[in-house]
Design goal:
By secondary structure, this protein is mainly β. It has six helices and 37 strands. It has three domains: 245 residues, Umud Fragment, subunit A, CATH 2.10.109; 190 residues, Sandwich (Jelly Rolls); 67 residues, no CATH class. A hairpin with a 4-residue loop joins β20 and β21.
Length: 584
């Protein structure tokens, strides 16, 4: 990612006004002292900037969504989520520096009023970019001596997963910002979206996971339109469920029916009342769905493969759909015949086609083709649990496609357990955090990098459970997470599902293995699809002397705001304090 160098403006304290009762010679001496003090302050600022802190502006989107380049702040008209879509930087953003993929791939020009984007939360399509103003990229405050001082004091330079600013190895005049993934002397390999170091999977700690995660869905933002192609992604499994919905909250009562579907769950978790996630996709997609159909109905013309997403194959007796079958198409086929088998098949296919696999598609790169998508299995479930009464269980369930894991919060035994299907004993146990009985808390369960990690209010509950890859875990996930409970009065709020970064392979290299030299680092961008990084450089290793420093915070953010004077509309920049954050 290219960065534009900016100056860090330090506020200068105002001097107190001089008293009119002071003698003239005292006023003159005081004015001289003030001038000298201002000169010394200016020199201190110059020296401080030269040796300690420096300001940089992110111009492109290779680290999105952790760090944003020039972008449009878009508000979804359906679910009202505000999200970022990459925008082309102005012509003078790079001051003549060469743009390498970071800025140009998958980014639409703000001047293109015909460009449309889709909401990453609810999938609403056709949102016009022309009605949203371009916003400058994040401004970073970079500690230029962080790595050098740490190495002198602790004998350790940049750490794995840290964000670093450095000079491009192919153009030393251009600063980049990426994440440190490989350390000197290591051999790295990119496989199935993960990073392997010397043959072993590199796993991210909780702090890195929170800084790198990408939202899949945020239940606080629910569509309020009547689009027939939308259905809630979270729903109860039981017909007579004890769960009720209150806006974006889920409320559980201690008594009543339990979920009738217990397939695949242990006896202790099977009797719970479950809320299940299915990845409902409004429209589009490149996935294929099919249902059984013994024969095409008589009197109905078969679909034209050039005009319809439906196709029928008589030999395996399968009715297939490419992407999500639109509601209008379902209704049209349904009205063509009285054949009940065909109508039931189309109805099942409509629902099945909209439950899409989770992929690494990032709506920030709104013009990217879905053909470059990969299935993702590394997920994080976050929710707020408010215990009210009862000594029962609250459970979070996650699968990677082959294994099913549970985080059990047992209020009767005051215990937290990590369990798995097919395993008799708990994989991990820990005391129930006392705060769970006192106030609402944020619970996190993660499967990033094949480790089960539990946290309460961003603090780990127990040691992560690490497991090996299964040959059966390559399938795309459609219903990957659930949560449930029994014997409790509780409320669940602020439910969010996130995914890990999927590091895509470098197509211009015959191998995805990289050997680093004794003083080289391997750098990757979080927005892997558009990042120009170690995967693409002639020499993948970044030499130590090219490191500039570690970005600490996003500071001095702004956003465009429109105001009207009479019949004229003006756009000005106003502070955007919501973007101030510490960089992980």
């Amino acid at each position: 990612m290219e960065l534009r160098l900016t100056s860090v403006q330090k506020p200068i304290p105002k001097a107190a006004p001089w008293s009119h009762s002071q003698p003239p010679e005292h006023a003159a001496g005081g004015m001289r002292a003030l001038v000298e003090w201002l000169i010394l302050l200016a020199l201190a600022v110059v020296i401080f900037r030269g040796f300690a802190l420096e300001g940089y502006m992110v111009s492109t989107g290779s680290m999105a969504p952790c760090l944003l380049g020039y972008h449009n702040r878009v508000t979804c008209p359906a679910c009202h989520l505000e999200f970022a879509c990459g925008a082309a930087p102005p012509d003078d953003a790079f001051q003549g520096a060469e743009v390498r993929g970071d800025a140009s791939v998958g980014i639409a020009s703000t001047a293109d009023s015909q460009a449309h984007v889709a909401c990453p939360n609810c999938g609403q399509t056709g949102i016009p970019l022309g009605s949203f103003s371009r916003t400058e990229g994040d401004q970073l405050l970079v500690h230029k001596n962080a790595f050098a001082w740490r190495e002198r004091l602790r004998g350790q330079g940049p750490r794995r997963w840290e964000v670093a600013v450095f000079r491009s190895p192919e153009d030393a005049t251009t600063p980049y910002v990426k994440r440190v993934v490989g350390l000197p002397g290591e051999q790295l390999e990119l496989k199935d979206g993960d990073v392997y170091v010397d043959g072993r999977l590199a796993r991210k700690p909780l702090a890195t996971q929170l800084g790198i995660r990408i939202p899949v869905t945020l239940h606080d933002f629910q569509p309020d339109d009547d689009d027939p192609d939308w259905r809630p992604r979270w729903s109860s499994v039981a017909r007579n469920s004890n769960w009720t919905s209150d806006g974006s909250r889920f409320l559980l009562k201690a008594s009543g029916a339990t979920a009738p579907s217990t397939a695949g769950r242990s006896p202790e978790t099977a009797s719970l009342d479950w809320i299940e996630y299915r990845h409902w996709q409004r429209a589009g997609g490149i996935h294929r769905s099919s249902v059984e159909l013994s024969a095409w109905p008589e009197g109905v013309e078969p679909p034209n493969p050039l005009l319809s997403s439906l196709e029928y194959d008589a030999e395996p007796q399968r009715l297939t759909c490419f992407g999500a079958l639109p509601h209008r198409s379902w209704r049209r086929w349904d009205e063509m015949t009285d054949d009940e088998e065909f109508r039931r098949a189309v109805r099942r296919l409509y629902v099945r086609s909209h439950v899409a696999p989770l992929t690494n598609t990032l709506e920030y790169n709104h013009s990217h083709s879905d053909e470059e998508s990969y299935p993702v299995r590394d997920l994080m479930l976050e929710l707020e649990l408010e215990w009210k009464a009862g000594t029962g269980l609250f459970v979070m369930e996650m699968t990677d496609g082959a294994n099913v894991f549970y985080a059990e919060f047992d209020f009767g035994r005051d215990q937290v357990r990590i369990t798995a299907d097919g395993v008799d004993k708990p994989l991990r146990t820990a005391p129930l955090p006392p705060k769970l009985r006192r106030r609402p808390v944020i619970l996190i369960m993660s499967t990033f990098d094949r480790q089960i990690l539990l946290a309460c209010d961003d603090a780990p509950i127990c040691e992560p459970f690490r497991y090996e890859e299964s040959e059966d875990s390559q399938a795309a996930l459609q219903r990957p997470v659930s949560f449930g409970g029994a014997g409790l009065d509780a409320a669940v709020n602020h439910v969010g599902l996130f995914r890990d970064v999927y590091y895509t392979p470098a197509r211009d290299r015959p191998t995805q293995q990289f050997q680093l030299g004794a003083d080289e680092f391997f750098m990757l961008g979080d927005n892997s699809a558009v990042s120009v990084d170690s995967r693409h450089w002639t020499n993948p290793g970044l030499r130590r002397e090219l490191l500039i420093g570690r970005p600490l915070v996003v500071h001095l953010p702004s956003r465009p705001a429109r105001f009207q004077i009479g019949n004229r509309t003006r756009t000005i920049r106003v502070p955007d304090f919501s973007r101030i954050r510490y960089i992980q």
